[in-house]
Every structure is written in C-alpha cells, then in structure tokens.
Amino acid sequence: MTNLSGKTVVITGSTSGIGLGIAKGFAAHGANIVLNGFGAPDAVEAAVKDTKAAGANAVHYNGADMTKPNEIEALISDAQKIFGSVDVLVNNAGIQHVSPIENFPPEKWDAILAIILSSSFHTMRHAVPLMRAAGWGRIINIASAHALVASPYKSAYVAAKHGMLGLTKTIALEVAQDNITVNAICPGYVKTPLVENQIADTAKARGMSEDEVVNTVMLAAQHTKKFVKVEDIAALALFLCTDAAQNITGTHQTIDGGWTAA
Description:
This protein is α/β, with parallel strands linked by helices.
C-alpha cells in the first residue's frame, strides 16, 4: 500500500453516499480529506465529524457548486493552499433524473451533464498541473455500469457516464508518463440516498411498485442479487492508489455483481 498519510484527497459529492464512504476509506489511512457537496449544515458537520473519526489527518469542507467552473477551480486551489498538494482526486458528484425522452426537462439534462461530466473536466484541468509538479497523482472517476450499458428513461445520466469513461481514457494517455494514473470505477446499484430516490422515480415512470423496481429492474441486472456496498467501492479506490496499481491506467473497473458480464 502506498503510504497515504499526509496526502491530500479531494472527493466531489462526498457529504453522503458513495463519496462519503470513499472519504472514510482514505481517512482510515491518515490522509487529509477535502469533502465537497450539498447538504444541510448539520449533515455537513456530521460528515466532517465522521470522516475525522475514521482516522483522517485533517478534514476540510468546501461547498463548491459543481455546475460552476469558477467554484470548481477554487475547490482545487483551496485544497492546495490549505494542505500543500492535491494528490488524489475522486470525481464522484452526481445527480439523477428518470423520465422518458419526450418529457425529459432540458434543465435536468444540462444539470446532469454539468455535475457529472463537465465538473470532472474542470477538476482534472486544475489538478493535473499540481500532480505533475509533485511527480505523483491518482485520479479516480466514479462512473457507473451505465458508462457501459444503457437503461431506459436515463438519457442524461447514461450519456454523462459514457462521456466520463471517454474522458478517463483520454486524460490517462495524456499523463501516462507523469506518474499519474486515471481510472474509472463502474459500480452497479449501490444502496445510497440517490438510489433510494431513484426507486420511487423509476416506479412512477414504469408504473410499478417500489418492490418490483428493486427486484425486477435493479437487482435483476446484478446476478449476485445484492446491492454493491459503499465499502467495496472505497476499497477498490484505495487499491488504485497502491504501488501495485501503478500500471493500471485508462481502465474501467467494474463492481456490479456481474451486470455487465451478461
């Protein structure tokens, strides 16, 4: 395991769900953690407290709006000013909307593309020079099984996640000789607040009960018949930062219960 003690990890969309789980995973190895995301002040405070309790050397919260490039630039700049570096970048921020294309609100399309795809471009644009200067860096983009396969009624999300995978490959090639790796993790369904909300939306869109959505839509694709655990995604992210993973770059790592194997 690469020694992460004192290294700085910036994780977008990390006040809950997958992002917070990843933050806690890196915190357990003594990293400095920069949390980002929306949430009520007490929820943000709880996320900071929980991440510190998990073992972080230090925790800083930055509430940058992932639809605003200037705030994204400030997020990376602040991390560097506060901790002296940005060693690991995890692009995790995301939102979802489920609707047939003819009813899909254009503003939802714009927001999903901005928060998932464009924000990843902007964070990497500002983090890569810092990593090059330091001579080491790891970028992990939290994509999805939907970066590889499609599902109906998720046009913006599927498009954004497919784009994230292409962006991952491109930047990996650009920094391949700089001791920086860029990889995507593609989870299947993970029981997070985002998915909890998606169950209700999908039930409405498909005219099903919520139990039917879980059993015949979500877990039907995952041949293990289990939701992916947040802790499993954190463990994979940590592995991608080890010396053993130094030649793994430009890849997608699936953790989807066999979904995309079928």
